[in-house]
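Course assignment 3, question 2. Fill in each field.
Student: A.L.
Task: Predict the tertiary structure for the chain below.
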Amino acid sequence: MKEDIFDYLMGRAEYAIKSKSLALTHETYGQVKMARKLLAITKEQFWELNKILVRNGINNPAAGLE
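Answer field:
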């Protein structure tokens, strides 16, 4: 079950970054945080998704999110 949720969130994270949508990226990051709070994903999975959404997305001007 945890792998299904992680795979779903990974797909959304990749889509959000590719779509260049800041709003979708923030929404997906909110889902990631909630999944972690509910223990639906591991700490390592959280940090992997965090790297994609925050470090390489939200906090990276070169990502071109609008």
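Instructor remarks: The chain has one domain: 2-58. Residues 29 and 35 are 10 Å apart (CA to CA).
Grade: pending
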